[in-house]
Description:
The protein has about 325 residues and is an alpha/beta fold. The chain folds into two domains: about 15-190, Nucleotidyltransferase, domain 5; about 225-323, Rossmann fold (3-Layer(aba) Sandwich). The chain is built from eleven helices and ten strands. A six-stranded mixed beta sheet has the order 3-2-1-4-5-6, with helices on both faces. Helix 6 runs parallel beside helix 8 (about 165-185) and helix 7 (about 145-150) packs across helix 8. Keywords: Exonuclease, Hydrolase, Nuclease. This is DNA polymerase III subunit epsilon.
Amino acid sequence: xxDDRTTAETMWPTAYPQGYAVVDVETTGLARxxxxxxAAVYRLDxxxxxxxxxxxxxxxxRDPGPVWIHGLTSDVLQxxxxxxxxxxxxxxxxxxxxLVAHNAIFDWQMIAREYARAAAAAPVRQRLCxxxxxxxxxxxxxxxxxxxxxxxxxxxxxxxxxxxxxARVLAxxxxxxxxxxxxxxVRLPLLECRPLTEWSNSPAAPRVGYQxxxxxxxxxxxxxxxxxxxxxxxxxxxxxxxxxxxxxxxSGDTSxxxxxxxxxxxxxxxxxxxxxxxxxxxxxxxxxxxxxxxxVKAKSFGTPVVDEAAFTQLLRDVxxxxx
Length: 323
């Protein structure tokens, strides 16, 4: 068994990134119009050693959401800086590094949206999800929670759902994961991060029945797509093109921002479904072996499954609807 020092000095993969930014954000919720209320970054060198860390509260300019989870009340956040006030400092922490997070698609999309609202872009080109990495390493975890990953590596969590402590825990668990990957020649599950450029500055409507201390409770209402005008032609068949009207569901992390990917599907005449049923034509996922409700249902229904790259290729030549 090689220790970390031996791995680092004699066997470190030259293709691995030169630095990482381990990130955790706490938010007002999970939707497109939700906001960041706190953020933390642990900067790590190429071999996962901590260089420094940073933490900030963020005034979301709306109700703080699930206070019982993150513990940040309106009073605490009222005098906190706005995101645009900390965007430059945040950028400096992220620049030229791979963003590392637990369920990275969520943290990345929240960060990308905040930068888009501030008419800027996060300097992030790649991300690494520690859930995906733990799967690549075949770690014997009972589930994909951060606390399970921490327990596996003997990392003590002190304040769950506090951005700084969650980032610390993840940084401490990521380092041995990174060294295990280097030792075993595992290719890191890096995904591309594309900054959001398609964003509207139209005023938001507040959520019904609530007016928060920061004014309107939403920055932008969620988009309601018009119904697909084409009938469902049935399931996708391998070797044949997609056809307008097919019902497409998405599951898990994607390289392209999920909503942009869904927009492309809608523009091509496809129906984007929020769940998997017997009528679903195709499930798009980069992790078909995960135990999400969508992948489990897809297997039980025999729904065809393709990854994001294959789906992107299929989008280039969607057959017109019948009739």
